[in-house]
């Protein structure tokens, strides 16, 4: 396994500064969202060939693998024109990943109230599927993976629905980014082992990267903690990872630059 980090948690910096800081921190891989992490890139349309060549060269020099290119869009918007504009941004992300020799481009699937009626949720799921089919068509041409992240508060909110999307899209270029915290709600935290077991059973073969963070529940809300200081059952998760996905990339999300070494050590202790 390799322990990495979400690059923009170290702040928006120049490409050189960002790679140097992450390398000095001892992280081996990153999820890089250029529009959040790199100075001078505020929008997907501002990413140039020069940016891509520099990113590729400098991160390689620092021996940092870019595991996931973050291209977080809104693929379930009800307005068709706005939704398809988001899909076009993601397609550019796929082309950028190809040039960077990055194998995964990641996104979530748009916030959706957890109490949305089933009939409305189904309509929005169909919008998501239409978007993903368009994204996957390009992914297959570019030989890059669409990494989709289920989130309990989003359109793709359960392992079961994620499995259905994978089945209906039916592409080897559609895979899953697993974030255990994002799959639980404050009201379902006691069922986390059941939720994670279902995730592994339905999606395990398709998990290509993992986001790792920790929480406690305070006032019926998620409150962030350092890895191992919260309630997420990482002993259970790592018992599965060690057996089934020993090469998993573990991307710390929401790292505090003042305590990243504590997090890194805690993560490593789970599998070493």
Report on this model:
- This protein is an alpha/beta fold.
- The protein is 44% helix and 18% strand.
- The protein has an eight-stranded parallel barrel, surrounded by four helices.
- α1 packs parallel to α3, α4 packs parallel to α5 and α6 runs parallel beside α7.
- The radius of gyration is 18 Å and the shape is globular.
- The mean pLDDT is 97.
Main attributes?
single chain; 272 residues; alpha/beta; 8-stranded parallel β-barrel; 9 helices; 10 strands; 18% strand
Trace the largest sheet across and list its strands.
Answer: 1-2-3-4-5-6-7-10
Averaged pLDDT, please? 97
3D shape: globular
Helix content: 40-55%
Topology:
Elements: E1 2-6, H1 15-25, E2 29-32, H2 34-37, H3 49-61, E3 65-70, H4 80-100, E4 104-107, H5 118-142, E5 145-148, H6 159-169, E6 174-178, H7 192-203, E7 207-212, E8 214-218, E9 221-225, H8 234-244, E10 249-252, H9 260-271
Parallel strand pairs: 1-2, 1-10, 2-3, 3-4, 4-5, 5-6, 6-7, 7-10
Antiparallel strand pairs: 8-9
Helix pairs in contact: 1-3, 4-5, 6-7
Summarize the structure.
With 272 residues, the chain is of the alpha/beta class. It contains nine helices and ten strands. Helix content is 44%, strand content 18%.
């Amino acid at each position: 396994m390799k322990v990495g980090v979400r690059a923009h948690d170290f702040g928006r910096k120049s490409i050189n500064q960002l790679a140097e800081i992450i390398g000095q921190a001892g992280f081996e891989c990153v999820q890089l969202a250029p529009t959040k992490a790199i100075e001078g890139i505020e929008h997907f349309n501002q990413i140039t060939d020069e940016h891509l060549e520099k990113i590729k060269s400098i991160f390689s020099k620092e021996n940092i693998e870019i595991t996931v290119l973050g291209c977080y869009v809104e693929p379930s918007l009800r307005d068709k024109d706005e939704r398809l504009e988001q899909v076009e941004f993601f397609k550019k992300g796929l082309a950028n990943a190809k040039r960077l020799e990055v194998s995964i481009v990641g996104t979530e699937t748009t916030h959706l109230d957890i109490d949305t009626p089933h009939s409305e949720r189904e309509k929005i799921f169909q919008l998501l599927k239409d978007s993903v089919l368009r994204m996957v068509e390009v992914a297959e041409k570019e030989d890059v993976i669409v990494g989709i992240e289920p989130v309990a508060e989003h359109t793709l909110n359960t392992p079961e629905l994620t499995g259905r999307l994978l089945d209906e899209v039916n592409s080897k270029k559609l895979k899953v980014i697993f974030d255990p915290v994002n799959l639980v709600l404050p009201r379902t935290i006691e069922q986390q082992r059941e939720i994670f077991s279902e995730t592994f059973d339905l999606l395990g073969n398709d998990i290509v990267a993992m986001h790792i963070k920790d929480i406690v529940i305070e006032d019926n809300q998620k409150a962030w903690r350092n890895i191992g200081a919260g309630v997420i059952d990482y002993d259970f998760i790592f018992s599965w990872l060690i057996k089934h996905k020993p090469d998993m990339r573990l991307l710390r999300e929401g790292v505090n630059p003042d305590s990243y070494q504590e997090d890194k050590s805690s993560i490593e202790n789970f599998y070493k």
